[in-house]
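pls read this stuff:
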Amino acid sequence: MSETETANAQGDARLYELGINLVPTLEGKIDAAFEAIKSIITKSGGEITADSNPVLIKLAYTMGKNIDSKWYRYNTAYFGWVKFTAQSSAIADIKEELDVDAEILRYMIIKTTADASTEASAVADAVASDKDGDPVAPEEVEPEVVEEVEESEDAVSSEEEETKPEVDAEIDEKIEEAIEELVA
């Protein structure tokens, strides 16, 4: 193997940021859930360089997640981020573990720079507003599960069947494609 091939095989570690929305039902368990997410990164060979603990935010739109064969919809989530260095080859392993975590509503991994850091609470303040666009204090945001629907072949409503899973799958697919382009 030439020196160039060896250097490419070893690869240089890159700086990434994981933005994450955790389900709002984790009250009291947020720190443990966030530590578990950080351990997924370190277990895959990543090194945490910065983080911002999750804070409860109102979501711009209702998000859904299938947990144990039940469809849950949320209007709030705990938002936080982790900045880490890792080999690009480790990202697939990290994503694989994050995908199966029932406590994660959504996440995104992007390449970033060392100077791009904003505390999660500042982000929450920036996006928090009521229906009239007026700011909402973080303490006024309550964890909210909009709807819990048990899934079975006969129990799925026609509206839900036509829109929610397909829209979420389409959005998730587009996000994954964008992430793949950034990571590659």
